[in-house]
Amino acid sequence: MRKEILIIGNWKCNPLKLAQAQNLYRSIVSGLRKEAKENRTKQHSFKTKNKEQVRIVICPPFVYINDLVALNKKLGANLEFGAQNCFWEESGAYTGEISPKMVKSLGCRYVIVGHSERRLYFNETNEIINKKLKISLRVGLTPILCIGESKKDEETGKTEEILKIQLQEGLKGVENGKLVKNLIIAYEPVWAIGTGDFCDPEKASKALFFIRQRTNAKVLYGGSVNSKIAGEYLKVGFDGLLIGGASLKAQEFIKIIKNV
């Protein structure tokens, strides 16, 4: 039985200035507290009708993590943090890279690996993603492995084939037991990300079933999630949501949380 719902906000390469990131974060915390007060709960610890806990995670750009963690403490809030990426080694002569140990030292619990934008724009292969996932687990982070099919794959009926390959190669060397319990799968159909063309929940549930046949990990849905449709993904069985653009709009993000 699902005991908690995970809502993750991926800010991607936004906003442009620290002050804007801080203001956005303050607005989210303030809005969550207002909702919490109305629902007679503490801070962001909402519960659904089935008394499921809702855990909220923010994944800002690397340059803002330290400041936002400090702001989180100053505000007395208790949202959690994640990074949008990491390198596959703990340290070394890798100019420009950020290791998972560095990510953890900043106060992050989670790290996104294999996002479709990393695969598309930075040519990250399943092998590279697998290396990042394994070292993240090794240092004590909870990796969020993103998988999903392109529009062409979806139209030609190759969704399950693509998901199978991404799961097999992405989870290679990871036992489907204790370690899998420490990672999360995010199903994000590539054709739905940032397009406004969200995947119908019933259709997404077929991918969810396929994934659950192959791993015991928690499974989130991501891809043009908005407050009107968010709750439907939970109804068909997803354990939470990975939210992109909507997480940059404080009121919409709060509505999504409220509606699940």
Task: Describe the 3D structure.
The chain contains 10 helices and 8 strands. With 260 residues, the chain is of the alpha/beta class. The protein has one domain: Alpha-Beta Barrel (TIM Barrel). The protein has an 8-stranded parallel beta barrel with strand order 1-2-3-4-5-6-7-8, surrounded by 4 helices. Helix 1 (18-38) packs across helix 2 (62-75) and helix 1 (18-38) runs parallel beside helix 10 (250-259). The model has no long low-confidence stretch (mean pLDDT 92).
Which secondary structure elements does this structure contain, and how are they paired or packed?
Elements: E1 4-10, H1 18-38, E2 53-59, H2 62-75, E3 80-83, H3 100-105, E4 110-113, H4 116-121, H5 126-139, E5 142-147, H6 151-155, H7 159-170, E6 184-187, H8 201-212, E7 218-222, H9 230-235, E8 240-243, H10 250-259
Parallel strand pairs: 1-2, 1-8, 2-3, 3-4, 4-5, 5-6, 6-7, 7-8
Helix pairs in contact: 1-2, 1-10
